Amino acid sequence: MTETRWLNGPVGLDAHSRVLRQGCRTVLVVVPYVVAGTRLVDVLALLEADHRVTVVFTVAPMPNETLCHGAEQFVRAQGGFVLPWHQAVQCEFDLILAASETSVAQLHGKVLLLPHGAGAMGSRLHARSAGPQACTFHGLDRGALIWRGRLVPAALPLTHDAELAVLRTSCPEALPVSTVAGDICFDRLVASLPWRESYRAALGLGEGQKLVTVTSTWQPESALGRHPDLLDRLAGELPTRKYRLAAILHPNIWAVHGAWQVRAWLANCLRAGLLLLPPEEGWRAALIASDVVIGDYGSVTSYAAAIGAPVLRASSLPEDNMRDDSLAAAVARLTPQLRLDWSLTGQLRAVIESHSTGLQAAVSDLITSRPGQAGTILRRMMYGLLELPEPARQVVVHPVPLPGPVPESSNLCPRDEL
Length: 418
Hints:
By secondary structure, the chain is α/β, with parallel strands linked by helices. The protein is built from 18 helices and 13 strands.
């Protein structure tokens, strides 16, 4: 049965009779899946301590009306007021914050549409779910920005000047609402670099220990999709006195398979001391704490390279489905390929010793054209849509929080204890 109950929140009919303050601007945060929610949390910090604004959340359905596992749990963990989707589409908001175009066209209000990864273009030429005959597609296509002839975003922050050039061809109707704002996630990573030793201490690293972090995006071409035993190999080969092992898995892996399954697949590694970072937060602190990152074509690998971490590449997209000017292509050109038929310890030692600043400069230049400015530009855009003067206080880029790895589940017992 379809849920039809309405909640008495700070929006909708008669809201003026139940709110703490009348006349507040209303902001709706749209979370179709966790990875979009994590990006929006960074942006929401720009609205903190403003008593003229009230914020509510909603979990948007996918185009086939399904819901992504974990999205509502993520929102509730933030303490957000969760407006049911059927209610959200019947209300009007002063500002709608989204990091995905998913279902946003059904809502009423001025939309600020952000990318949920490193840039809006993506690395694939073709969406994998669209099939082998699909046309090329990216996040700045008309199909992503226009619905039934209507431009959906009222404000379109871009990360890079190159995206502005693409937009002139792909969807010129969006040029008047677009602004190159930079990448707020990257800015927070850079602001966190001075706290590296604090993050390492929080992860329990001993003096002189090297942190090896494996990051995998989702789908079969990813690092762990192609090499499901990679973490087991590393856990078995790396001397524990010299190395600690961490894992960052894309939130969609957790959403599709569930936390129990993820822990079950990694049970032996967890017992051996693997630091498994939760999908919501902790991955950025782990990147900063890392001495080397083993990754793939996902955004996390690009962010690692952009802040100066040595990178080994466990997998890449096929060349016929990878944008030549994408971050994934740059990482594939500039990083060595991990060889599972060679000594893993030797490869890690070699990439650490041979690391130079060239990779960092090349990738960071592709991630943002406005380093350190994203918070200031995004706040200006939001308050422009809200038709409010900006707060007088200066925008501060806060370091990311201390990491808290996922604890080993007591339900996953060694075989000899069953």
